[in-house]
Amino acid sequence: MTQQMIKLAVVDQIKTTFYLILDADVICFKPTSFHDLIINGKAIINIYDSSNIVTRDEWWKASMKILKTDLDLPMFTGVTPTIFSTEIVSKLKNKIQQINKEDWISYLLKNVYIHPFTEYTLYGVFAISTKMFENFHIPSQSGLYNHEKSVFWKNQFDSVDLYKIMEFSSYFPGYFLVFQSNTGISALKVREKMGTLFEN
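RE: above sequence
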């Protein structure tokens, strides 16, 4: 759970308006620049409605309990990869300390198993509930990562033509693919799907 705290705590070292969060099971499948991800001062972010949620419901409920809010969310933000606003994260940390009367890291470490949150759902609940979301983000179904071609379940892996996606990347929306690490699929298997793309 330490990595969750690191992704939030690092904001104190960030000098830019946004920062990109990547986990080890994420692949960038096309050339990507700052201007692809930040448009008119807002960061693209994957969102879903309640009928197509890709994160666990308990993560959202736990995050609401930590932030002491109870609202009917109009949408749900995706998980890794994502782009955090430094302003939102800073205010999120302050909010956790203010309402719980305790250092935010200490509070989250003590409650991570009682309220099984993620850094992404904490960020999403706070950004949406404070109405800061629309000031810093552009919501999209596959703007940041391509949900349709990502692998969240082991039985999806064989049907993904990674070589084709990377060779003809301009035809596919998004910039990243997720190969969920808890599927047990090895990095070598993912690399094999790239074929000869990175061979000289």
